[in-house]
Amino acid sequence: MTPGDLPFFVYGTLRPGAYNHDRFLLGRTGAEEDAVLPGALLHDGPGYPFAVPGEGRVAGALLTAAPGRYGELLGVLDRLEEPAGYERVVREVVRSGDGVCVPAWVYVAAPGAPLGPVIASGDWFRRP
User: Fold this and answer.
1) Residue 108: is it exposed, middle or buried by C-beta count within 10 angstroms (0-12/13-18/19+)?
2) 9 near 62, Cβ under 8 Å?
């Protein structure tokens, strides 16, 4: 699998059911499945969360681009995430349905990101 084929792991406002999902991803994704990012902690932020390396797990969704939409999806996500304090990295993500580890693009907190308190559940949808 080349970096151009990698799915995307989202864990905050871009997850299915969250307010930015349809706004930015509708029609651009093919498959969407529950997944977990191991070895990470979830921090609250200024209206959206940040994942950082740590002893925990972050709940989210693994998104595969719709046919012919990979470049468009990558561009939309980079334009949204990078100015907000994220950097795109490759991490191993575990699909919840079958437990298989897959490499995926993950937007994690860049140095200097405005980290708030840790979200103990690791799940943006279950934050206090």
Assistant:
1) buried
2) yes
User: Which pairing describes strands 29-43 and 86-95: parallel, antiparallel, or unpaired?
Assistant: antiparallel
Q: Which of 18-40 are b and which e, b meaning 16 or more Cβ less than 10 Å from the residue's Cβ? A: beebeebbeebbeebeebbbeeb
> DSSP state, 115?
-
End-to-end CA distance of the chain: 38
| 43-58 tens-digit pLDDT | 999 999 999 999 999 9
> DSSP letters along 32-50, please?
EEEEEEEEEEEE--SSS-E
pTM of the model: 0.95
